Amino acid sequence: MNLKRTMTMALAGMALSASNMALAQTTLLNASYDVAREFYKDYNAAFVAHYKKSTGKDVKIDQAHGGSSAQARAVNDGLEADVVTMNTTTDIEFLAGTGVVAKDWAKRFPGNASPTSSTMLFLTREGNPKHIKDWDDLVKPGIQVIIVNPKTGGNGRMAYLAAWGYVRKKGGTDAQAAEFVGKLFKNVPVLAKGGRDATTIFLQRNIGDVLVTFESEVVSVDREFGSGKVDAVHPSISIVAENPVAIVERTVARKGTAEIAKAYLDYLYSDEAQEIAAKHALRPRSATLLKKYASTFKSIQLFSVAEYFGSLSEAQKVHFNDGGQFDKLYTVR
Question: Which residues pair with 63 in a beta bridge?
C-alpha cells in the first residue's frame, strides 16, 4: 500500500513538474528600456491575440524595464529574459560579446534588427516659458537641462551624441563639439538613471527647464500626467536612434522558447505592430505609416550615428567608457 502511495505521489510530482515546464515554455520575459513600457503593454496584448489565433496556443508576456544599459547588465548577470528590446545597439553588442545573444544578432531580423526608431527632442514646461527652440538654447546660462546619464542609459547616450552631431552637422569641429557638449552638461543639475527616471525628475520633482528625451516619451507623458503638461520642441537637427531587438539564446535554449521568442520579435514588423508603434510615437519602418502620422513625426534634419561616430560601439569606446570623453566633460556634482 505504501509503495502504491509512493508511486502515486511520484507520478503526481512528475505531472506537476511537467505542468510547470509547460507553463515556463509559454511565458516570455522581455527585458526592455524605460520609455518603451507603454508601447510593449499594447504590443503584448496584440501579439498574444495574434499568436492564439495563428497557433491555437496561449502565451504570457512578462516585462522588465529600466535604463537600457542596466537592463543589459542584468540579463548578462542572469536575468532570464527570452528577448531583449533596447534603444541602442551597444547594449545588445555587449550581450553578443559575452555569448548571451548570437554574434550575428543584427542579421537575424530585418532593418539591422531594428523594427522601429526614434530621435531626440525637448520637452519644456507648458507654454515653453524659457523660449527653448534648439540645441543652442540648452547651453545658455541659467537653463537647467535634465538628461539621462550616458553611462546607464541609451537615452542619455543618444542625447549626448545628438548634441555633438548638431555642432558637426553645422560645420563645427570635434573640438567645438566637445566644448558645446561640455557647456550643455554644466547645465545638468542631476543625471537621471533612465528615461522614466528623467521624466519623474522633471515632472514630479519639478527640477529643470527642459528634458531631453526620446520622441516617444511625449505620448507617455500625456497619458500619465495629462495632456498639456509639457510642450514638445523639435530641434532643427537630431539623431536617428534605432531600437534593436534580439533573442537571448542562453534563456531560450534552457526554456525551449526559441520558436515563440522569434515569433514575438517577427511580429514587431507586422502592419498591426507598426501601427501600434506609430501611435506611441515610435517611428515605424513603414513609409506609408510615417506619412499617415506626419503630425507626430515632424520633419527634422536627421543624421545617423555612422555619419560622425563610425558606430555606436566606437562611440562607446571614445565617449562613454571609463576615462572617455564624457568623463572629461562632466564633473559629478
Answer: 30
DSSP character at residue 310: S
CA distance readout (Å), 331 to 84, 152, 185: 32, 16, 9
The two beta strands, 230-233 and 120-125, are antiparallel
DSSP state of 101: B
Which set of grid coordinates corresponds to residue 154?
Answer: 541609451
45-72 pLDDT tens trace:
999 999 999 999 999 999 999 888 889 9
Distance CA 304, CA 238 (A): 9
Show the beta-strand stretches assigned E in 175-218. Answer: 191-192, 210-214
> Does pLDDT of 314 surpass 70?
yes
How many CA atoms, within 13 angstroms, populate the side-chain half-sphere of residue 34? 24
The C-alpha R_g of the chain, in whole angstroms, comes to: 22
Mean pLDDT of 186-202: 93
Nearest alpha carbon to residue 156 among 201, 120, 124, 200: 120
Closest C-alpha among 23, 333, 329, 11 to residue 174: 329
Question: What integer pLDDT is reported at residue 244 of this predicted model?
Answer: 95
Query: Measured at the alpha carbon of residue 121, what is the angle toward residues 111 and 314, in degrees to the nearest 5?
Result: 50
Phi, psi of 294 (to 5 degrees): -60, -30
Query: What Å distances lie between residue 37 and 43, 81, 177, 196, 205, CA to CA?
Result: 10, 15, 33, 9, 21
Give CA–CA dist 167/251, Å, rounded. 42
Q: Enumerate domains of the chain plus CATH numbers.
A: 2-116+243-289 (3.40.190.10), 120-239+300-329 (3.40.190.10)
Please state the length of the chain.
333
